[in-house]
Amino acid sequence: MATIVTVESFEDGFYTVKVKREFDQPYTRQFTESGLNEFVGQTKAYCEHKGYDFMLVPLEEKRTAGRPAVGTTKKVSLTLPDEVWELIGTKKKEWGVSQSQALRMMIEGYLYSADRQEVCDLCDGKGEIQEGFVYMKCPKCRED
Asked: Rounded to whole angstroms, what are the CA distances from 57 to 8, 38, 65?
């Protein structure tokens, strides 16, 4: 029998660890550094005593399948009107990308374009403003 302890991440002073025993479902626990060292030591000693294999996969040696990381992952909850979610869905299909990629492209596009030009406070750089159902050229941005 084998026990594999994989250090998944380190955030806010806690290590997130996945533990997988050969015939059991994997489970996840969080530890401080001293708690992790104690858990690993006890688990390793138990495995040696029972004649089981023990493997520790440290954070820096952990290999992941799939696409390379493009930055830091932070989970967020985002509330938007249904029409906006529909537009995002349309764009992700049009661009052939995942929802995460589409949102990342939209956010980066907005942020980088905002860095290159000053955005009008009346129309958010769209060049037009809406009053009720009427669209008109932005009085601040319109070209003369």
From this structure: 9, 16, 15
pTM: 0.41
Nearest to 33 by CA among 47, 49, 51, 13: 13
Classify residue 102 by burial, with Cβ atoms within 10 Å: 0-12, 13-18, 19+. buried
With beta carbons less than 8 A apart as the criterion, state whether 48 and 1 touch.
no
Element holding 84 (H helix, E strand) = helix 82-95
Which residues on neighbouring strands pair with residue 10, listed in sequence order? 15
Residue 144: band (very low, low, confident or very high) from pLDDT cuts 50, 70, 90? very low
Max distance between CA atoms of the chain, in angstroms, equals 84
